[in-house]
């Protein structure tokens, strides 16, 4: 019987017979988990054929490739970064994405693609910031250590559409907060703000097409985060409008993270049991 285990994911992983450094939320190991929980939930993406997605200009000896049939340039390459110090990411591309094999290299058009993302950011940088705000509160510091330990675990990873740069929208908010991101995304769905699509550049139209595939913020949170409680999504949105300035704010935020992980885990465990 297959059961969910909330393992911690490291950086180094074997891919195509090579040991490669990965961003843990988008590594081959994590994609095994993503396939289990997202296949059938997210349709139209190739979960069985994962790709790197690196611009050709990163490789000094490779040029882009032209597709005459579609009259488009294929500017991205399915190879890991040439710099071994970089953190690589694997993506699930849309089923109809144009790929061309040329001289042993796979070229890819600009494409809708899902990649991994940490939900709540308790990495070393954010940990130090939270610790400074908390000060000497022993209870809060103990809670912070527990949250820090979950940063690179499966329960804290979800997929996010990479075309349109929503990761930047989430990441540029103080502390890289998912509640702030969901608050902004809800404003977009309600038509009161377009902040969530403002970093998309020339891909804004394509990001908006993607977002219009969801009925509302509740549909998005159910499909992407496995959160199906309207009341809890409303609470996430409410807290996304609040600042984190003092110890009590950090405790409130960690309470939100724990409840988010608890609810998400229940749904993921159900999926693992059904697929066993």
UniProtKB/TrEMBL annotation:
Q: What is this protein called?
A: Uncharacterized protein
